[in-house]
Design brief:
The protein has one domain: Alpha-Beta Complex (Amidase signature (AS) enzymes). Helix 5 packs parallel to helix 6 and helix 9 packs across helix 11. 36% of the residues lie in helices and 16% in strands. With 464 residues, the chain is α/β, with parallel strands linked by helices. The longest helix is centred in the N-terminal third of the chain and has 19 residues.
């Protein structure tokens, strides 16, 4: 008997179309898994049981009528709780938002996933107001890594990582400002897609840093990432930075192989401040891909510093009224970082944005010589849930601030990235970033799909 909680989304949809199972059976299996495992994984903050059953029944009814089913028909998905879900309060990982009225309408990306046939299971745990790399939450409890529950998922899309890696959803949606899709994907052993800035609509989601925020999927297969991306892509006038054109579908391109692609490896900054496991993972993929071209991101360390400044200033400005009126209701670490950002001089922010434009211009020159390049996704495998510091390059550094050391310079300029999961030499998952030029998601996905087909990736359901 097939355990549908362990199947990839595209295989679930295929089985439903073929009549090998029903959407209702798939959803019931996932609801049962959530009931059994969510308390220990800390993935969901709300489960949309009746909505999921009604949507699954509608998929089954459409098949019974002989209708052609859409590409994600019956595929269970869930979203970080900063996405609006009609009838549910949009928590954004906070205590304060619990006083808000329930959302009236769904986020654009939920609407588009459901139009493609996917079935929403509920809202997922996250770091408070997305200001987190760990997956810890002071109000809803910590998300825990399905591969080792003593370890963190990474954040801030911690529930998204726990649900996808724990078999509690086939596809999850997260957000990525400085690395919040790629860090959980790396620590939980998942494929994750941070698309080009502006590729996917952010309408009706709770913001963090408007000039850095991205949305995207996590999944256990590249095809699921591609199907979700195609389902969600397209213009949306409700998000002013969303692309104005309809991109070509990426699904037909992911299996075309590596012919004609030039692949490099990030050096300098991306070869320091990490553990041996992080660098060995990159070396393993580089050798398999014969990626020999060194890629240098000039001043990447300053890009990370500028990303911190922009994050702190925009985040502090967004939350200033809440900081004034309800400072005691914040996670203390989040509160202090937001307070610090609110007090930074405006000239710091202006200078950071000027540097950002220069850094983007310089980095884009790299793509005259390569189509994509590799870099570590995280500096280490998953730390322990309550671990405060770790040692990088001989220095004892805070975990919370430094899990995104390799992701921040990339999201800073909005490049598309697919995180590819491997099994590190210490037996835990770790990810490698495959980074492409703006608007070239299909390049990163092609490389990830080739690695997956060659058996180079390690993407498994966590412990039962």
């Amino acid at each position: 008997m097939t355990d549908w909680t362990r199947q990839h989304g595209h295989l679930i949809a295929q089985a439903i179309r073929a009549g090998e199972t029903t959407a209702s059976a798939v959803i019931e299996a996932h609801l049962l898994a959530i009931a059994r495992r969510n308390a220990e994984l800390g993935a969901y903050t709300e489960v949309s049981t009746e909505r999921a059953r009604a949507k699954a029944a509608a998929v089954d009814a459409a098949r019974a009528r002989g209708e052609a089913l859409p590409p994600l028909a019956g595929v269970p998905f869930a979203v970080k709780n900063l996405y609006d879900i009609a009838g549910i309060r949009t928590l954004a990982g906070s205590k304060i938002n619990r006083d808000h009225a329930p959302a009236r309408t769904d986020a654009t990306l939920i609407t588009r996933m459901e139009a493609a046939g996917a079935v929403l299971l509920g809202a997922l745990n996250m770091g408070e107001y997305a200001y987190d790399f760990t997956g810890r939450n002071a109000h809803d409890g910590h998300s825990r890594n399905p591969h080792d529950r003593t370890r963190m998922t990474g954040g801030s899309s911690g529930g998204s990582g726990a649900a996808a890696a724990g078999g509690l959803a086939a596809i999850t949606l997260g957000s990525d400002t400085n690395g919040s899709i790629r860090v959980p994907a790396s620590l939980c052993g998942l494929f994750g897609l941070k698309p080009t800035y502006g590729s996917l609509s952010r309408a009706r989601t709770f913001p963090f840093v408007a000039s850095l925020d991205h949305l995207g999927p996590l999944a256990r297969s590249v095809r699921d990432l591609a199907l979700a991306y195609d389902a969600m892509s397209g213009p949306d006038s409700d998000d002013p930075v969303c692309r104005k054109d309809q991109p070509a579908p990426v699904v037909p391109q992911i299996a075309t192989g590596l012919a004609g692609l030039r692949i490099g490896v990030a050096d300098g900054y991306f070869q320091r401040m990490g553990t041996p496991e992080a660098f060995e993972a990159v070396d393993r993929l580089a050798k398999h891909l014969d990626a020999k071209v060194p890629v240098t991101l000039a001043e990447a360390h300053r890009a990370r510093a500028a990303a911190f400044i922009i994050t702190m200033v925009e985040g502090g400005a967004l939350h200033i009224d809440r900081l004034r009126s309800r400072a005691g209701d914040f996670d203390l670490e989040v509160r202090d970082r937001l307070f610090a950002g609110a007090m930074l001089p405006g000239q710091f922010y202006v200078q950071a944005q000027k540097f950002r434009r220069w850094f983007q211009s310089e980095t884009l020159k790299i793509f005259d010589h390569v189509d994509a390049f590799l870099a570590p996704a995280t500096p280490s495998t998953a730390p322990l849930v309550d671990q405060a510091t770790f040692t990088l390059d001989g220095q004892e550094l805070p975990v919370r601030a430094n899990l995104g050391i390799f992701t921040q310079p990339i999201s800073f300029i909005g490049l598309p990235v697919v995180t590819v999961p491997l099994l590190a030499t210490n037996g835990l998952p770790i990810g490698v970033q495959v980074i492409a030029a703006p608007g070239r998601e299909e390049v990163a996905l092609r490389i990830a799909a080739s690695l997956e087909a060659d058996g180079m990736t390690h993407c498994k359901i966590g412990q039962d």
